[in-house]
Amino acid sequence: MPRPVLAITIIVLVTFTRLGAQTTSTEVLGTATDPGRTAFPLRVSQSGRTFVGRDGAPFLFVADTAWALTFRLNREEALRYLDVRKAQGFTVVQTRVLPSRGPGGPGAVDKNRYGQAPFKNDHDLGLPNDAYFDHVEWIVEQAAARGLLVSLAPAWLGCCGDGWYEILERNGAKGAQEFGQYLGRRFRRHDNVVWQHGGDRDPMAAWREVRALALAIKEAVPHHLHTIQFGASSRHIRPVFLGDYSWTDFDTIHTFEDVAAPLRANFFRDPPRPFVLGRSFFEDEKDGSGLSASGPGSEHLGTSEQMHHRLRRQAWGAVVAGAAGQAYGHGAVSVFAPGWESALRSPGARQMQVLIEFLRGRPWWTLREPLGGEGVKFVMDGSKGPVSRIPGKTDVQAAIGDEGRSAYLFVPTARKLRLDLSRMAGPISARWIDPVSGQTRAAGDGPLPAGGVGEFISTGKNEGGAEDFVLALETAPRASLRSLDFRGNCRDKPVPAGLVGRTSMLAGEVIEVEGYGHQFGYHCTEDQGRFVYTQLDRDFDVSVQLVDNRNEFGTESQAGIMARKGLDPADEYVSIEATADQSRYFADVFLFAVRTGRGKWLGSSGNDPEAEAFKYVADTSSRLQRKYPNVWLRLRRLGDSYTGYRSADGAHWTPLGNWTVSLGERPYVGFFLSPTPERGFSGKGTARFANVRGLPQVHHEGQTP
Question: What is the CATH number of the domain that holds 405?
Answer without folding.
Answer: 2.60.40
